[in-house]
Amino acid sequence: MLPALLVGLALALGSMPAAPPVTPPPGGVDLDYQLGGAVPPAATVGIVVRDRRAAPEPGRYNVCYVNGFQTQPDERRRWRRHPGLVLRDGGRPVVDDAWGEWLLDIRTGAKRERLARIVGRWLDGCAQAGYDAVEIDNLDSFSRSHGLLRPGHAKRYARLLIARAHAAGLAIAQKNWADLDGRSLGFDFAVAEECGRYDECGRYVASYGDRVLVVEYRARDFRRACAVYGARLGIVLRDRDLTPGGRRAWC
Question: Can you give the pTM of this predicted structure?
Fold first, then answer.
C-alpha cells in the first residue's frame, strides 16, 4: 500500500512527469494495412498500419501492430525462453491453427504482469520509433484456448497494455471481439477485420463512431461494407497475406 500512496502523493505534488498526450486516429480516412511489408502508401491514404519492426511512414497517422495475446510464428525461439508464459494443454502449447501462433497464458495476475512487461517494451519501442498508436492483436484469443482462458482474463490483461500504451503517448485499438465495448477498458479506437463479412461493423461504430478501421479480404464483403459505411469509415480491401505488392482498394 505504501508505494501506491507515495506515487499518488508524488503525482499530486507534480514531481512525476505527466503522461504524454494521446491522439486517436482521424475518422473516415483511408487506411493501408501493411503488416506483410512496408510500401509507399497511395496519396489518398491518411492512416498506415505496419508491424512493430517496420518504420512508420512520414506525414501519415501511423499505427504499430503488436501481437500481444499470441506469438508471432517466427518468434517461437524467443518464447521458448519463457515457457511458463505460453498456454499449454496436456503439456503442449495451444496453437491458433489459422496462423500457427501459440497462445499466451494470461490466466494469473503474475503471468499477466510478466507478459505486460515484455509486450510493454515493444509498445515503448513503437512510441520511440514515432508511431501515433498501437494495435494489439488477438484480444479474443480466449475463443481459441480450448476453454482454458476466459474473457475476464483478456480484459484484465488488456487494461495493463492500455495503461502502458497511454503512458507512452500511444492511442490503442481494440482488435476484433465485436461484442465488447472496449471503451469500458480504455481503448481509443477499433481495428475490425472482416466486419463486413460477419455483419459486425455496426457494433464497432456504436462504440467508437467513425474511429473504426476496417480491413476486408473478400471483394463482396468489401463492397458490402462500403455500401453501408464507406462514407463514414476508413475501409480497405487487401489480400489475406498482406503482401507488399498485393491487392488494395478503397471505397
Answer: 0.90
